[in-house]
Amino acid sequence: MTISWPDARPERAWEALGEGFADPVEPADFPQTVERFWNARAAATVGLGGLDAEARIAAFGRFARPEGAQASALAVRYHGHQFRSYNPQIGDGRGFLYAQLRETRGRERLMDLGTKGSGTTPWSRSGDGRLTLKGGVREVLATAMLEALGVTTSRTLALFETGEHLMRGDEPSPTRSAVLTRLSWSHLRFGVFQRHAYEDRADRIGMLVDYAAEHLLPELAGLDGEAKAAGLMQAVVARSAHLAARWMAAGFVHGVLNTDNMVVTGESFDYGPWRFLPRNDPGFTAAYFDESGLYAFGRQPGAVFWNLQQLAGTLRLVCGEEALIAALNSYADHYRASLARAVALRFGVKPRGGEIDLALAAAAFAALAEGGEGTRWEPVFFDWFGGAASERRALEGPRGAHYGGEAFNALRRLLEGYSPADPTRLSDPVFAAVDPQEMLIEEVEALWAPIVDQDDWGPLQAKLQAVENTRVAYDLSGTAAYDPAFGP
Fold it and tell me: pTM to 2 decimals?
């Protein structure tokens, strides 16, 4: 069965790479398809905004083939370091690349439609290829909140409940099933390069470099040969440093920063046991199985750098070592600059640049640490959004008593030197509320409870609307600090 997307612009870029990069697969035949989430705003960017309910079921519940798209769904081949142990047995095991579409708005970038929970593939190993409904709901919440906070992320496009009963060790079982479709710039994981380097296929590494240069990274336009591979490494270092900084400014813990969970476009994606910080705690972990704290909050920048080193190792097949080392050596500078800018933007003030913004970032982290148990992460940025323009609102609010310590006083003095990025934002009704929108694990569980108990989706829908209101009020998504195509 094929379907028509008259307003979309399908392309077949990944398919054009040829054999060895992916395997054609068929989607699972689900017993039911009940739409639980549809991201109309994201859909509109790739010409899918006009799909009615029936068309959405055909596309994202049944995965009928879109006219003009690749001939079949493709399970991408990759390897990866998982908690720093190399695993050559993995690949797309419960998802596939459904289609690729050119944006119909903005800069007309190539976008991927990737799935999660769409059935078994040659790389499923002993897995059932399925996604729990709770896991799907958690990804919807993660992507919505991260976008609101200006973090570069894949966007959840669709979530369908699929009517199966799954057995899982980390959820009360049997539990409900779902299939999710994400919209992102790329599914070109570090692990894709690792697989072909493992097989000593310099030719395929070169093809991946060409693919990234042509379709994903405008920074590489005009480069040839080794310069293109070196440029790829430089671009991925900059984008990954930018991403790590935005996670830190958002108080976000990805949880599983394996090399197969990072992509060259610098997007956060493939969410598992993520968490947002309740308060400043460098040792805070998201995954119960991360017993050593390898991917704890404070270790995320280092984990990203380690993964970049593994990517550089694969590019040695097509690029000189000196250029790769130079790119890696730029990571710290990119990270510091990105973090400084990210913190300024989180406070809703105009970045001033250089050491000034680095001092603000350092003061913010110190103040968050000083506040202790009573100072939650997100409310600090909410209360002080707009900088000194919000001082009265912050001090007279419910958390004002926490803003009088030495570190907070130092932060307040620094904020006095900044101008609000847009003073009109503070008139938004979002800032008239007592509390900001947060996404702590307790609330995530509270949102899931009425779904599993009464099939009541009202609280989740209300939360998503409140997060969307926050996104509009913060207005971080339109800044150069958000979009990796502009660099850090």
Answer: 0.96
